[in-house]
Design a protein that fits this description.
GFO_IDH_MocA-like_dom (chains A, B, C, D); homotetramer; about 25% strand; 2 domains; NAD(P)-bd_dom_sf (chains A, B, C, D); seven-stranded mixed sheet; globular; 13 helices; oxidoreductase (chains A, B, C, D); Gfo/Idh/MocA-like_OxRdtase_N (chains A, B, C, D)
């Protein structure tokens, strides 16, 4: 079976998914839609697909699934429309920045028996997948403590930050999902600390750029997250999981692995400087997983519920910083 | 000048300091005292010093300085006695498990213009010293965030735990001191999470074995500490410090650095399995720093105030866990 | 400009190049030829190109360049035919196992002003390219000594070995080319030592499986090559280059970079176990370089002369082992 | 039992051994002799031993063993004298630069049933010992190929080089011994290549500064040695041993193991810059092994025969370079 795709949104992340879909032997990209015709045209030319309107894709008989890469504030509406249209849906995170809106959207997905996958791409990074596999294989025993280090090479534009929902909902949300993915038990409390250390403009925009979070599960397992909008040495993405029998960790990735030694010491190059080059394989893998789930009629993961859970942790972190206390989550 | 030493306490840690003193070209070990004559005799024989009573050492004209390695509950009294006797004092941490008792003790030290160094040996580990040096050299710019991983190879006996003051005052206290040493700014708030994941007996003794802590300074700098009483792979002691211009980290230490590669992968040996082999050089370096400070009449560091500050953070962490909130510290 | 390709040979390596050509935005795969129709059909179906005979490709007006992936003993003939037909030629190494045949072939290429690139793919590995770049950037000063470690995960079938020309012409030839690429000066002498340590059947087939080689240039620069047909831990491919000001090295590559730590130590997974996964990017990069050279009318490298030079070093190594002496090369 | 030592030679290496002897609980340093009274006095003062003449030490009833650290050209004579005097002898390498002189000396040792250990200290480096242990434990199966990288931080004075016997007898000799220690089978042939790349003055003195060597055993096992008198990044001392089941390697050592990351990449400090700091533990371990062998009446290793074998390989390497051929050794 070949899954026939429509792509909604032809921007930066839309291009990434266009490449992933067309590079997958079990998928074909049928059409692309974008508010900017030039953006849609570019993808259509490169991959030999059609340009259509969103309405046309919604109604199309020759399209089985859509990838939603439009602006965040359109996600929930589009999920509802395409769920009602019977299309399988891959939606970039987040579904929405508002928990209630997400819940309403998921209600529609449930009622229409929709198939929805949320784009937490890091679950599909080969290195993090191997971490999870090592846990599942029992190599470290019962998971006890998780440490996630996630630092961006540089802060986004303040304009972006203003629309982002804040660092916890925009950046840490990936780490909340990763913590849930690795802890194997739901988080019941959140303690967060936040500051503006990188750029005062971020503070003026009402956000933070440097945050630390402790998550805890019912049985006491803990995850510690350390985030910064600044890492001069590249895109710092590390995980370590401690268990009763041992520890498994994933190292950082760099474009080339050479080392130069001289009187100043031994120097390896900086890390990747962009999430798209760092997570190239993850993007291809997540679309492959989406396609495979559709083909086999299997459960789709990460689901809308996963998206909601991560957002709830982000909301709790915001409250924890404001109220200087640990916040319980349902 | 040669500094003439008396050693109070000839147990495990007393032996470490006896070796450090006798191996230092600017020091001589004159006498040792211990409640168990056999323990004192053993050190006297090995290093050619005398066995004396504590009273005799207190009164001795041929002794300039003492190293206090007796049980914790005697530390504050001995500091007061030897401060009054005009001896320079190196005291193993902690001064006492009770903040008020420490304050009273330090008052005596101040009144007698005593010289007191507290044994936070990790400040003298060559690798951690190099981390601090890199900061002082401006290699990472302004310090922003510190991550300290500190995991013991195994839990101590529950009997020990009962007398220890609890994990925050016994184990994390080293990390509180290290965080203060690296942050370069006083901590103003503590958020801690704790659980019993390793051994239920530890829980029955009223303590925890797995804890996570976030410290924050006035300007928003953060330190995250992750502690466990279990690390199957050895004594895990890592530090990383993120600054505005870069990051400096100290790797773990292992007794031998070989690697065996085969079909199972590439395997390096476990880490040191004991704090005394891990911190061999640190113990020698701290005594050397104590001696050098005495010789030059220089300020002694870490001081009693440093011991008090770390203990206050431990107390705050205990309260934070109990009250599920961030605790402010003066 | 788009370069229009014909593919000669649809076997294992032919598939690799089909993927590289079709994945390149400046190229199109027009036709494929193979003695086994099923093999050609498979590629035609997957990439939407035609199946043609070699003769038809030779005569085709819609084909600018060919990739030769047929058996080794057909390479020289095909190069001559397609050079006369005016096509740019990418030929898998080696041109031939016989130096005289290579020379005759290159004469035809010269006379017809042909464009010939020889498939020493490792020059296009991003890590080895970065090593070369570091040299070119002057980071290690003048090159003095090169060490190349190249060990296969396992020996090929003895049937293959019998047709291979022997380990020096089949396996070490890559390292001879790499040494030339890095030394920056022609090799003038070869000293080789060889043995059968892995599989006696290889010895019965008249070949070796474990060899060591020293190359030297006129000014005295040295390269040491260590080869084995066995590496239980994966495909071991390392380079280090020592210069007057420092050293640059390229580490091994592994599919996933996790580490599991427990009482047995710290274990990372084995390396890639297959040259095609190890050198995925190198294959794409070399075809891209071929296409770029055609488009710009630039000099093609590595050239037929590079193929010849590496083969001459292999021949000298064979003689060195047989005659137990250093062999001079022109 | 306590072994009573005399030290012959109070220079740089004499001091190292004085420290090793006095730091060993089973040994005592009784006397030191040196042609320069001030040098002997300094050691006598620091360690509380006597200054005596060589003759007095030879005749002394209170001395069981000597450590010979005098100039190379006195070693063979002193070994003969002290062997006749019935003292156990630890002699710094080499016994002599002339094979015949070494043989004559060993004849005297044999006739007098002397106990002689030769100072190939690297066999006692904890990391190299662990490599050997991994082999002995069967972790890599049968040894097949050994790679030894040994590069000095900088060249010695040309005056030293003139007296040194040349790079093969002065520097590579350590690697010849290490190869023998690891191969587990006697070497039967030597192929060497040499050049002057570091300093023309070394060439004028008749020596080389950059050499590559292949050793082979009867069964075909190979060891490759790469030496240079220059390594800007510190004292480069690495070993890897490949066997039928896997590989074991020993990494380089550095004084501190921190890493600084910034826009230029990840930088670790240079290696040790001096053999004495690199091999501190090795020196203590070899004296401990000597003492233990004396106490237990055990066979002493490395023996005079080991010294002779390494020297014979150095001689063969010299001939190999001169005659441009592989040299057989008995």
């Amino acid at each position: 079976m070949t899954v026939r795709f429509g792509l909604l949104g032809a921007g930066r992340i839309g291009k990434v998914h266009a490449k992933a879909v067309t590079g997958n032997p079990d998928a074909v990209l049928v059409a692309v839609a974008d508010a900017f015709p030039a953006a849609a045209d570019a993808i259509a030319r490169q991959y030999g697909c059609e340009v259509r309107t969103i309405e046309a894709i919604e109604a199309a008989k020759d399209i089985d699934a859509v990838v939603i890469c439009t602006p965040t504030d359109t996600h929930a509406d589009l999920i509802e429309r395409f769920s009602r249209a019977g299309k399988a849906i891959f939606c970039e995170k987040p579904i929405d920045l508002d928990v209630e809106r997400v819940k309403a959207c998921m209600k529609v997905v449930d009622e229409t028996k929709g198939k929805l996958m949320v784009g937490f791409n890091r679950r599909f990074d080969p290195h993090f997948m191997a971490v999870r596999q090592a846990i599942d294989d029992g190599r470290i025993g019962d998971v006890e403590m998780v440490t996630i280090t996630s630092r961006d090479p540089g802060a986004p534009l303040v304009d972006y930050i203003k629309r982002s929902g804040g660092i916890f909902r925009d950046m840490t949300i990936h780490d909340f999902d990763m913590a849930r993915f690795l802890l194997g038990e739901e988080v019941v409390s959140v303690s967060a600390t936040a500051a503006v250390l990188v750029d005062p403009e971020i503070g003026k925009a009402g956000d933070y750029d440097s945050v630390s979070v402790i998550l805890q599960t019912k049985s006491g397992k803990q995850a510690v997250i350390s985030n910064s909008r600044r890492a001069t040495y590249g895109y710092d993405q590390r995980i370590e999981v401690h268990g009763s029998k041992g520890m498994v960790s994933a190292e950082n990735q760099r474009p080339v692995s050479i080392e130069v030694a001289n009187g100043d010491g031994y120097t390896r190059p900086p890390l990747h400087d962009f999430f798209m080059t760092r997570y190239t394989e993850a993007y291809a893998n997540e679309i492959a997983a989406f396609i495979a789930a559709i083909e086999k009629g299997a459960t789709i993961s990460p689901s809308g519920a996963d998206g909601l859970a991560a957002l709830a942790l982000a909301d709790a972190a915001v409250t924890s910083v404001e109220e200087k206390r640990q916040i319980s989550v349902a």
